[in-house]
Amino acid sequence: MASELVASDALPESVTVHVGDVEPLLGWADHASHVSTVVIAPVELHRRNLKLRLTDANHPLDAFEFVGPTAVASNVLETAGKSAKALDRVDRLALLGDILSGENEATERFRLVFGGEPAQSGNAIEQARRELEVTTNYHPVRMHAFRQAVESISSPIDIDAGDLLDGTLAVERLLRRRSEKSPSDGALIRRATRTVIDTDGSAWDEAYPSAERIALVGLSTVPATLVDLFNAITSKCDVEAHLYLRRGTGPFLEQRLADVWSVPNPGRVVVT
Questions:
Q1: What does pTM read for this prediction?
Q2: Which InterPro entries is this protein grouped with (predicted)?
């Protein structure tokens, strides 16, 4: 099935959205002795499937580097001489449990939402933290829009939603303060995003000196964390960006992509 290009005035010319198959990506295969395309796939299965398709078509793999988002972020940070360590889910939940067992702004807010001791709702609170991160990447512009949406909800639901939002932000602050590592993979990607911008693109260029393009595949949603990283790379480096969306959900995600992309200073955060 052929891939369909989608044009959007909200995206820069260096960014191309493909809806449908990934044939254009496979067509970049050549016998180059260096990596010309960095393929970022959040799920290992997608990376493996692309490698199999190239192999089955007798295409070489030399032109590609297939990686996950955190591996890219770690490579950029290590190249820039910065820490590339992040808490895994188990360690984050353990630290979150310690936070929710104490008295702080987060526990005050979550008692109002959940009605019991917040430590008993650790998984639900971690899920809320994760969803807010994926949706906003804690960027001030997106957080302002998110809070406006919360405040527009009818009472008394707006109060619970506001407490949940403020409690989640408080948890994010405390996680940062209590760990020397990045509290999540998303936070690691944000650090890499800021590093690309702060170094005027040199951190990316040194990490991937021969890359001519980056491709993002296997998306079932549009995570703001990855959009901001791509925004930083394409704004500071001479690199094309290609995003491959599925035919069924592609048109919706393409519109979502345009909305998420248009923020100034990607990687900036509202929580400190």
A1: 0.90
A2: UvrD_dom-like (IPR058819)
